[in-house]
Structure formats: C-alpha cells, structure tokens
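Subject: mismatched residue count in predicted assembly?

I count 811 residues in my input, but I want to confirm that the predicted structure covers every chain. Input:
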Amino acid sequence: MRIIFLLPLIFSIVGLSFSYKLLDQKHEDNSSSLIWLDQELANYRFTDISNNETIDVKELEYPALINIFSSWCVACKQEHETLMRLAQYNNVKLYGIIWKDAKSNIINYLKELGNPYHKTLIVDDNFFADLAIAGVPETILIDKNKKIIFKYIGPLDQEFINVIEKTYD
Amino acid sequence: MIPTLGYFSLVFAFIISLSTIILPFLSKIIGISRNLNLSIIAVIISFIFILTSFFSLLYSYIISDFSLLNVFNHSHTSKPLIYKIAGTWGNHEGSMLLLVVILSFISTLFTLTSNYEHNIKLKVNIIQSLIIAAFLAFIIFTSNPFIRLFPPAANGLGLNPLLQDLGLAVHPPILYMGYVSFSIPFSVSIVALLNKNANKNWGQSLYIWIILAWSSLTAGIILGSTWAYRELGWGGFWFWDPVENAALIPWLSGTALLHSIISLKKRENLKIWCIFLSISTFILSLVGTFLVRSGIVTSVHAFANDPARGVFILMIISCVTILSFTIFALRAHNLRSNNSFAFWSRDSAIISSNLFLISCCFTVMFGTFTPIFYELLFKKTISIGEPYFTTTLAPSVLLILIFAAIAPFLSWQFDKVKRIKKLTQMNFIITIIVSSIIIYLTKIFTIFSIIFIIAAIFLIVSTLYFLIKKCRNKKTIWANISMILAHIGVGVLILGVVLVANLEEETQKFLSINDTIKLNNYEFKLKAIIYEEGTNFFTRKAKIYVTYNNNEITTLLPELRIYKVENSKTNESSIYSTILSNIYANIGEINHEQKLLVRIYYKPMINLVWLAMCLLILSGTVTIIRTLWIKYAYNIFTTSNI
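Triage response: the counts match. Full output below for your records.
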C-alpha cells in the first residue's frame, strides 16, 4: 500500500472534523461579530413609518444606534429584549430601519413586542449597499460627527449594552 | 389517509433498502444468481414505495390538504396549479424526497439496463440501496414531509415568491438527477476496488452513466443560471454564490472524470485516477447538498436552517467518505495500469487537462470554503467574490482551452511534434485573423481579454477544422460529434463571457413619467406606471418605450410583484433580445418625489452564452441517444441471429 493512496482519506478526515466543529459553532449561535468602520455617513432620506414624513440624515439625533431588522427574522426577536433595555438609555438614540418587509407587518410586530425605537424608518437600497448590509439583524453606531464607528452583525447582547454605556457615560 | 400511505411507504422502502445488506451472507446458502434477482427485486420494490410516497405528497399539494404541516407552510389555495405541483419540491422536505425518488430511479435504471456482469451488478445494487437507506433515514428522522397539523388550517402560508417561476419546476429535478447519477460511478468504482478489477469493458460500460450524470448536472446548472438571470433581477447569470459553486465543484471533477474514462476505455490507462475521481465527484455532490441543507451558508437557495439536519447529512458524508477512501487506500495499488505513453500523446493531453480541471476545482473549493473556515478560526468575516475567482481561475482555464483545441488531433500513445505543428499552424493563422476582426470591431484592448478571445477562437477554429479534416464518414462524425459540440460550446461560452464582461453597460435613475435615460444610442422613455392584480399578487408595471437613433423598436414591461399571502416582492425583469444583444430592464421603488427607480442593462453578445449552453446540453444528449440507439440496434441484431 503506497502512502499516496492514503492521502484522500487523511484530507477528508481533516475536512470532516473541521465541518463538525463548524456545525457545533452554528449550534451555539456565536455568529455575532463586530466590524470597525471609519466612514462618513452619506446623504440619505428616510421615511418615518408612523407619519410618513421624510427625514434627512441631518435631522436624526446623534450619537445614534441604527438597528436594521425585520418582522420575519428570528434573531431579531431574540435581541428584542436587549433593544428594549437599550431604549431606556438616553445618551444614545436608537433608530430602527426596516429590511425587506411590509409596513403593516412591522407595525403589528412592534405592537406585539413593544417599540424600543425612537423612530422606525424606511430607506432605499443605496443605504444597504453602501454599508454592505447582507442580512438582519445588524446594528450601526454613528457618533456625533456623523461618522460610522462600527457595525455589529447578529443579535445584540448584554455585553454590547455594557460597552455602549461605558463609552457614553 | 393518503399522507399516512405516503409515510408508511417511506418506512417500508427504508426497511427493504436496508435489508439488502444481508444478501452477501445469503450467498453461502443460496446461489449467486438468485441473490442478484433478490437484489434487483429489492431495488425495484423500494423504488415503487418511494414513488408512492412522493405521489401522495404531490397529491396532498394538488388538493391543498392543509392537515399536513408541510403543505400548510409552503402552499396556498390561490396559487396556480403548476406552482402547487412545483411547490412539492420547493421546500426542504419535499426536495429531499424528490432527491431520493431520483436516486432510486437511477438505481433501478442501472440494475435493469447496464451491461455489467452479475457479480458487479449485485454489489452495486447493495451499495446503491444502502445510500438510498441513508437518505430515507434522513427524511424519516429529521425532515418528515408527512407531519400532521391538527386542527387543519383553513389556508396555507404560501411559497417563497422567488421560487414561483417555471424555472423552479424543472431546475431542481434535473440538478438532482446530476448529483445522484454520480452515485453510479461511485458504486461501480467501489466494486472495482473490491473485485480488484477495472478493465476496458468496465470503463466502456461505465462511460454512458458518467455521460448521463454529467449532462444532467450541466443542464441543471444552466437552468439555474437562466433562472437567476430572469428572476433575481441582478442582471447576470453567475454570481459565485456558495450554492452555485457547490454545483460547479462536482461539475469540474465530473468533467475531468468524463475525459479520463475515455483514456480508460480505450487504453486501460488511468484506472486509479478514474476511480478516485468517481468517488470524489459523488462525495463533492453530497457536500453540495450539505452546504445547501445545513444552513452553513445563507443564500436564495438555502431554505431550511435546522442544525440537526446538517449533523445528519454530515454523518452520511463522513460514512461514505471514510469507508470509500479506506477501501481506496487498501486496494488502489492492485489496479496499476502498465501502459506507457510519450509526452506528446493524447494520453498525456488528457492527463494535463485533467490536472488543470482539478486545479480549477480546488480553486473554486478554496474560494467557497475559506470564508466559512476563516470565520470559524478567526471570528472575522471575509468575503471572496468575483475578482478572486476570475483572476485565479484564468490561467487554468486558458490552458484547458489550449489543450482542448490540440488534444483531438493527437494520437494515443505517442505522436510527433512536427505533425502537430503542421496541423495547428493553419488553425493558428485563421484564429489570429478572426480574433483581430473581433477585437477591431469590439474595441477591446485589455491584454487579459485579448488572450482569452484568442484562446477561445483557437478552440472553436481547431474543433471546426477537426470536423472538416478528420470526420470524413458518418461513423467518425458520430463517434466525435459530442466532443465537437462540447468543445465548441466551451469556446463559445468563454468568448461570450469575455465579450459580455467587456461590453456590457448599465445605468439606473429615478424617472417620472415621460422622463428618459440614454444608454448606448438607446433611449428609454418611461411612458406609464400601471397597477394590476394577478392571481396571487399585485403588480406594478412600468411601460418603457425604447428608441434607437429615434426609431422606436420596442416596449419593455418590467414588473415589481408583491405577493399577497407571503407579503414579499419579486422583480420580473423585461428582456428585449435581438441576435446581437439583450436589453434588460427592471424597476425598483418609487421614491419620495414620486419617481420610479429604473435600471437598464445593455448586454451585447449575451446570446453567445445561451448558444454555448445549448451546445453543451446537446452534446450530452447526443451521446445518450446514440448509446441507446446502438444498444437497441445491437439487441435486434443478436436476437435475429439466434
């Protein structure tokens, strides 16, 4: 038996063990991650879903946390409790942006679970494209100078709140 | 009643398939030939049971039986009948059932029609049955489509609107046909390892099964990309999405197998290599399924995210991989080929092109899996996109084109360099002339693109030259026709892709009524926005007049559909195609100034890509029909002699 014929077996065992590890990780749902950005916020126009008024980027209050969510997303429900806690914290304003969802769904969703958002907004696809948003939930932190500090992919947790509180106290 | 029948049929099929494993032990008691009959009967009966099960699910979908959870989740009474039927496999459970139906069908087809001797057939039947049993266990334990909903719902939740398209009705069955058909070369190779025998006849009999698998996989991938072109509204047909790559990876290794098996059936070369490729191609097909089903990657294709399913499929893959590669490691050295060949020979050309195909395969695998593993190891996400794939694949693809052009002229075993030079000289001159004309007309001046245009034209010209020069009579034409079609297809595909990538133009703008945008001498005028209601959706249509140098040529009607039940949107692009180009329009949202977002893509020469895809599908089909024809004629011939 030549050693070369063993190679496929060895490679596949390595690959398989990686895959098992990967699945385990998915189980724990450790898929949250933070990406540091240093980017000016461009000009966008938002529509407030409560009164259909258009709002310019300049009219938002900063520092702001912009949470992108939808009613059909399971991880968004998971982080909702955290968002409710964040809402009580006044130094940072929390805005919600709807991702691929109907307005009526969102209104029902917020009625059912409570509304943590200062304002809930609709924005066109350019916004998502510029910030490379590929899914929900994602949360963006924008500072007083309208600079995007980071985006956080995945559901928020208590640790995240602690960091925000420490920074803006 | 009917769903219960479906469920129990599944369980019976599972028991029958699993029970084939005792057949080898029976052989000591009963004779070998009876064993074969038993295994054939087992395969056929389990196929009938699986088919019954599939039809009962189909029936539940057609009558909209909302006492089934699966139907409730994925169907709705307002859906047109065709999508109710297609909806059967438009969800995880149903599509797995379809996969098993096709797997079982191909096993039955193999056992009834293949040319192998009894001893091989028996073992192949057993291996196929065990694979079927593994998938049935997967369905029964983790994704049972027959789970009841009590009390029954009044109406269903609907089907993902992206999937409400005719492409969906045909794309998955054919793609699955490709995936699971590679199980036949797999099983046959394992048997060859066990029997320590793989000769010319073995290769000859396997050839048609590889062709069948390769053609279905090709057709499946092509249908998928045309679906993406029409339905996703991104203006392209290939996005290097992990799930697309998951189909491309086995396609590349399958293509390598398709070429090396020719060397085996003609010259008894490359035995171990063919067996290795057969095993890996099937495993890679399974990995493709795993990627889609486990929720490790998210994309339009991944509709189920249950970790338990991922673990189960991974267990199936582990068993198959470890068992088969262990047998390979233990037995492969018994199958050495002793035929020698020179550097300048068709054998060596096939080996080289195989190596380049496999390097492409690894490149795509690397690009697909690295982001996943990187996230695991470093907790950071990276994305690998189109630039990586085009730059890293380019050298291999270029060499493949050149080898594909020259290889058919080479003779087996050894050839003279002078002869090849003489043969290709003429082609090369024609190539240079034709490419210069194309480059002059299209004004493409990047070196990278020019090289690829030349290589693609060289392949097309050489293959046509081969057709004229070498195929003098009917017999040689028939023997080479699929190679000629496929090689021209690949040449045209690469040419088309390069031209489209260089010449395409796109623009987008918010328009109010009677506003215009210009793109490449075309002028687009938004005439009206129409709101309509379809059977299960509302639609916003834009009426766009297209004029070319002030001559009106057509009206485009792109739509944005909002599906009532599912409350989500799909883009229906409108495409105006002429021989030379496609004009592709789709619309987006209406902004606060009541202007409508219109996107226009001008895609010249895209028809070359579609033509190439037709040629590739045709090439496989021709071989299958021809083999059937020979088999049929041969049967008549032999029976009349008796």
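Chain A has five helices and eight strands. Marking this ticket as 'not a bug'.
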